[in-house]
Specification:
Elements: E1 2-7, E2 13-15, E3 18-20, E4 33-37, E5 43-45, E6 52-60, E7 64-70, E8 76-82, E9 92-97, E10 104-106
Antiparallel strand pairs: 1-2, 1-4, 2-3, 4-10, 5-9, 6-7, 6-9, 7-8
């Protein structure tokens, strides 16, 4: 899924889930609007995180649940979490990003 962001000095991208670092996108300057590809394994379930999202869908996948989460902005992300984290629809869960390979597109 895509997460809206804005390029900052040094190539960081500011998003509603915090800054994402990585290689700058060619032909992007500070202030440019971008979309960051966020894979389900980039979204980590973390009860201690101050960032949270609402569970709007869930699918049991054996050892994991695939959650569809709604952010405060209304944007949606997918999150893979171990199956012992069984959260109800409408519940808010703590999350954090852990993006190893940043993929961005100009908006």
């Amino acid at each position: 899924m895509l997460l809206a962001g804005r390029v900052r000095e040094g190539g960081q991208v500011a998003t509603e889930l915090g800054d994402i670092t990585g290689e700058p996108l060619a032909n992007c300057a500070p202030g440019d609007a971008v979309e960051v590809l966020v894979r389900p394994d980039d979204v980590i379930h973390d009860d201690a995180s101050p960032l949270n999202a609402e569970v709007v869908e869930r699918a049991f996948r054996g050892a994991e649940f695939l959650y569809t989460l709604r952010l405060p902005s209304g944007a949606r992300l997918l999150c893979l979490a171990p199956s012992h984290h069984n959260h109800a629809l409408g519940q808010r869960i703590g999350i954090r990003l852990d993006i190893d390979h940043r993929v961005m597109f100009r908006r």
